[in-house]
Design brief:
Number of helices: 1
InterPro entries: MTCL1-3
Distance between the termini: 97 Å
Number of strands: 0
Helix content: over 70%
Oligomer: single chain
Radius of gyration: 29 Å
Keywords: Coiled coil
Length: 67
C-alpha cells in the first residue's frame, strides 16, 4: 500500500506544480503586456511633450515679433 500512496502523492504534487507553473506563466504574460503598454504610453507622452514645447517656442517667437 505504501508504494501506491507514494505514487498518488507524487501525482498530486505534479498537478500542483503544473498549476503553479501555469499561473506563473499567466502572470508573466500580464507583466509583459503591462510593460509594453507603459512603454507605448511613455513614448506617446514624450512625443506630446515635445510637440507642446515646440508650440510654446513658436508662440514665444511670434509674441516677440509682434510685441
Amino acid at each position: 500500500m505504501q508504494g501506491g500512496e507514494n505514487r498518488r502523492i507524487l501525482l498530486d504534487l505534479k498537478t500542483v506544480l503544473e498549476d503553479v507553473q501555469a499561473e506563473v506563466k499567466r502572470e508573466e504574460e500580464k507583466r509583459s503586456e503591462l510593460q509594453l503598454q507603459y512603454t507605448r504610453d511613455r513614448c506617446a507622452w514624450d512625443l506630446e511633450k515635445a510637440e507642446l514645447k515646440c508650440r510654446i517656442a513658436q508662440v514665444m517667437v511670434m509674441m516677440g515679433m509682434c510685441g
